[in-house]
């Protein structure tokens, strides 16, 4: 049976979705679920404030109501580090829903003693720390620092990577982070380069969520094959 893992970018910037999809190319394995990435056209250009987060739930629910084929996916990944609309989606969709931020935090916590977060804007940090507390991972957080670049401007590669390198280095050398999380799905294109520079694992939140979702889907697929062989 063909399975689908659906990834929704809740902002309206198509370039972000394109780079998310590119970062997920290695997850498109032979015999595995299809990984489909789409953009929420009704969303803001970037999820950059609590107001943006609060306003997304209704738009996401409307999207899945208008696109029932995606609502019937085997799993859905919310590709935004604020996990906007996460609980509303879990309440209304019948398939498992994975939040990129939650999965990134849990993955980082499993990989090292302390993780740091590279945020886009300072006003996002309090929101991130609330979720870290909710997950009971305060003792794992080294620090959360911002590059002060909005979602749309992340496409300016020279200045964005320079700031990410500076902030990442501060997290590692001054705050003791031995894992670094990129705190925006729009940073996907920078993961490999940043990891090469920082010399510690760097986590892309959408990759973390897709990795967990994919593992769960493949495990169920394996179980179904074994049952078929035993019949």
Radius of gyration over all CA atoms, rounded: 17 Å
Average of per-residue pLDDT values: 94
Number of helices: 10
CATH architecture of the largest domain: 3-Layer(aba) Sandwich
Instruction: Return the CATH topology of the largest domain.
Output: Rossmann fold
- Give helix % range: 40-55%
Q: Helix and strand string, N-terminal first?
A: EHEHHHEHEHEHEHEHEH
- Largest beta sheet: what is the strand line-up? 2-1-3-4
Gross geometry: globular
Distance between the termini: 17 Å
How would you characterize the largest beta sheet?
A: 4 strands, parallel
Number of domains: 2
Work out the oligomeric state of the chains in this entry. single chain
Which stretches of 5+ consecutive residues score pLDDT under 50? none
Strand content: 15-25%
Work out the number of β strands. Answer: 8
CATH C-level name of the largest domain: Alpha Beta
Can you tell me about this structure?
This protein is α/β, with parallel strands linked by helices and 231 residues long. The protein folds into two domains: 97 residues, Rossmann fold (3-Layer(aba) Sandwich), CATH 3.40.50.12500; 106 residues, Rossmann fold (3-Layer(aba) Sandwich), CATH 3.40.50. Helices cover 48% and strands 16% of the residues. The strands form two sheets. The protein has a four-stranded parallel β-sheet with strand order 2-1-3-4, with helices on both faces. Helix 9 links the parallel strand 7 and strand 8. Helix 3 packs parallel to helix 5 and helix 6 crosses helix 10. The longest helix has 26 residues. The radius of gyration is 17 Å and the shape is globular.
